Amino acid sequence: QNETTDVPEQARHEWAELVEQINDHQFAYYVRNAPTVSDADYDTLLRRLEALEQEHPTLRVPESPTQRVGGTFSTEFAPVDHLERMLSLDNVFDETELREWLARAQREAGGDIHFLCELKIDGLAINLLYEDGALVRAATRGDGSTGEDITLNARTIEGIPHRLNATGDVAVPKVVEIRGEVFLPVEAFEQLNADLVEQGKPPYANPRNTASGSLRQKDPRVTASRPLRMLVHGIGHREGLTIERQSRAYELLRAWGLPVTDTAKVVSSPDEVIAFVDYYGDHRHDVEHELDGIVIKIDEVPAQRALGNTSRAPRWAIAYKYPPQEVNTKLLDIRVNV
Ligand code: NAD
């Protein structure tokens, strides 16, 4: 018997329509690098879907976009399985929701915890696999389990070490997955667009999609011609390495020669988290990359483990999303092939 028969026809119909729309938008965004709606409109659709599933929980099936990471699409890149799943992040959209999340995190972690506040880089996630200190594979996030093999392209990015430094006080693990974000600095994006306009060509829509299009190129020489950068924000699978604090992981990553942000801050109270969020709300444009929010992570790794993950996101981290500053009305100008 189908449990969803308890759900009114109208709700089932709305659910199916929303899922179809969201899947189409995901394809345009993740595969074609050419979104057909603004991020704010996309987030609104996803929130509506979440609300509908809250009201009718039997609609919350594993295939729902609320339960998945990104999308599952076959692309022209070779598929590669991550050793540890890559997750997305849950979102909050205002201070009240953020304070609720922080209070719940403190309660559920059951003790004194610290919050690691970081900028949410508006780029695309990358997974770097190092074996015996050497970069052996780079992949996009894909559906979280399987991504696209972009090793040759990643090797052209300045700042992605081909070999990790073994000089730090903690040895580089024999096998380690490093998670980071590839982005195009705002200044480089503006220069690229100025050059295109001068050549009478249409400019690109935004740095995020340009970065994604630049990284997911069949010809690595095209990737190499774009001044892409990367900042790391996590470790996936690792062998023989125990870390007690996320902030400590960043120190190790830096010592191994990986680019780590210098804006991350460990704080101990919700008020300090809000102060960090407010500060960067006012200074969004002082940062070299676009940021669409702030990521707050519980710093203590044992508490992270205790809270665990949902099917799509860790329970020990949250993304606070800033309200959109301007809605891009020039979406139709986006070039599909970058
Ligand atoms: P997300 O981008 O909101 O958050 C998860 C990702 O944030 C992680 O995978 C990680 O790569 C990245 N990240 C950046 N900085 C980080 C940091 N400091 N620490 C940890 N992670 C960090 O999630 P998502 O599932 O990739 O996609 C949703 C986003 O993409 C939304 O903003 C949505 O609006 C946009 N989107 C838009 C469309 C569209 O059609 N316009 C379609 C799909 C998705």
UniProtKB/TrEMBL annotation:
Residues binding NAD(+): D39, A40, D41, Y42, D43, S88, L89, E118, R141, E181, K297, K321
Region of interest (Disordered), ranges: 199-220
Sequence intervals crossing the membrane: none
Signal peptide: none
Superkingdom, natural source: Bacteria
Active site: K120
Function in brief: DNA ligase that catalyzes the formation of phosphodiester linkages between 5'-phosphoryl and 3'-hydroxyl groups in double-stranded DNA using NAD as a coenzyme and as the energy source for the reaction. It is essential for DNA replication and repair of damaged DNA.
Family: Belongs to the NAD-dependent DNA ligase family. LigA subfamily.
Protein name from the UniProt record: DNA ligase
Organism annotation: Calidifontibacter indicus
Gene: ligA
